[in-house]
Design a protein that fits this description.
The protein is built from 13 helices and seven strands. It is α/β, with parallel strands linked by helices. The protein folds into two domains: about 120 residues, Conserved hypothetical protein from pyrococcus furiosus pfu- 392566-001, ParB domain; about 100 residues, no CATH class. A hairpin with a 5-residue loop joins strand 6 and strand 7. Helix 9 packs parallel to helix 11. The relative contact order is 0.08. One of its GO terms (molecular function) is DNA binding.
Length: about 300
C-alpha cells in the first residue's frame, strides 16, 4: 500500500502528531542515529520547567540497567550539534546514568514548529503541570499572533480548554506556584478565579491547603464571596430598623463564618425569641468524618 505524503504538523491534532497507544517517533523523523550526549543541547523554549529529581534518579538507574527503550527526537542545528524536540527528561537521566551516547530520531523541523511539537508531546504524556501548559500556550500565541481558536486547532484541544489554561496566568504568583507544585488542581484554580479580590483569593487558597477542601466546597465558598461582593457594590435602599434586626444580622454573619470554617452550606435559622436550628449538611461518610474532625480539633 502506498504511503500518504507527509503533511505539515501545524493544524493537526495530538493524535496525528504523536499517535495513540505506545509512544512513537514524531512523524517525519529520520532513521535512528546514535548521538554523543555532549552534542545534544536542551531546548530553551521547552514548556516543561519542573523535573522531579527523585524520578530522574529512578529513570537513570533503569537506563544503567536496560538502556533507553524509546529514542529522543532532535533537530540538527549545525554540523555538530543537535537540539532536543522531545525527550529532555530522558536526556537528563542519561547524563545522570553516565551514558556516552543516546539513540535519537533526527528530524528536519522549522523553528516555529519546535515549541508546538515539544508542547503536544508533553501534554500527550501528561508530563506538564497546568502553569507550564498555560505559559507554553501564551508563548505560542505571542510568537505566532494566534487567536485562542487557532491555537486550539493546532494543539488538538477545545477552545474553552485553551482559554481556561490561559486564565490561570491571572492568578497571584503564590497560587500559580501552588499549581506548579500540584498543591491544588485545575478545579480549585477555576473556582478561585471566580473571586476577583486578590487578598480574598489568597485567603481562600490558604484555607484549601489547611482544610484540604474539595473542589465543590471551594466553588461554594467562591460563589458566596462573589455574592457578598455584589451586595456591597449594589446596596439596597436603607430600611427602617426593626426590633431584633441587629441580632438577626449577627446570626447571618455567624452563618457565613461557619460556612467558611466547615466548608459546608450551613443553615442557621432563629425566631424573634432567639430559638432556632443549626443545620450542617454532608454528602457522604467521608464528609461527615471531616466535619467531626473539625469539631474535635476545636474541642482540643
Amino acid at each position: 500500500m502506498t504511503k500518504a505524503k507527509h503533511k505539515s504538523v501545524l493544524g493537526r491534532g495530538l493524535g496525528d502528531l504523536l499517535g495513540g497507544g505506545e509512544p512513537e517517533p514524531i512523524a517525519g523523523a529520520s532513521s535512528i542515529q546514535e548521538l554523543l550526549i555532549g552534542k545534544i543541547l536542551p531546548n530553551s523554549n521547552q514548556p516543561r520547567r519542573e523535573f522531579d529529581e527523585e524520578k530522574l534518579a529512578e529513570l537513570a538507574a533503569s537506563l544503567r540497567s536496560i538502556g533507553l527503550v524509546q529514542p529522543i527526537t532532535v533537530q540538527q542545528i549545525d554540523s555538530d550539534q543537535y537540539m532536543i524536540i522531545s525527550g529532555e527528561r530522558r536526556w537528563r537521566a542519561a547524563q545522570m546514568a553516565g551514558l556516552a551516547t543516546l539513540p535519537a530520531y533526527v528530524r528536519p523541523t522549522r523553528p516555529e514548529e519546535v515549541m508546538e511539537l515539544a508542547l503536544v508531546e508533553n501534554i500527550q504524556r501528561e508530563d506538564l503541570n497546568a502553569i507550564e501548559i498555560a505559559l507554553a500556550y501564551q508563548q505560542i500565541i505571542e510568537t505566532h499572533h494566534l487567536k485562542h481558536e487557532e491555537l486550539a486547532e493546532r494543539v488538538g484541544k477545545k477552545r474553552a480548554t485553551v482559554t481556561n489554561y490561559l486564565r490561570l496566568l491571572r492568578l497571584p504568583a503564590e497560587l500559580q506556584l501552588g499549581l506548579t507544585q500540584r498543591l491544588i488542581d485545575m478545579g480549585h484554580a477555576r473556582a478561585l478565579l471566580q473571586v476577583e479580590d486578590t487578598e480574598r483569593q489568597i485567603e481562600l487558597y490558604n484555607l484549601i491547603l489547611q482544610e484540604h477542601l474539595s473542589v465543590r466546597a471551594v466553588e461554594e465558598l467562591a460563589r458566596a464571596i462573589k455574592e457578598e461582593g455584589a451586595k456591597e457594590e449594589y446596596p439596597t435602599a436603607p430600611q427602617t430598623k426593626k426590633p431584633k434586626a441587629t441580632k438577626r444580622e449577627d446570626y447571618r454573619l455567624l452563618e457565613q463564618h461557619l460556612n467558611q470554617v466547615l466548608s459546608s452550606k450551613v443553615s442557621l435559622k432563629c425566631n424573634a425569641q432567639g430559638k432556632g436550628k443549626l443545620t450542617i449538611p454532608f454528602d457522604n461518610d467521608e464528609e461527615l468524618e471531616r466535619i467531626m474532625q473539625l469539631f474535635e480539633r476545636i474541642q482540643h
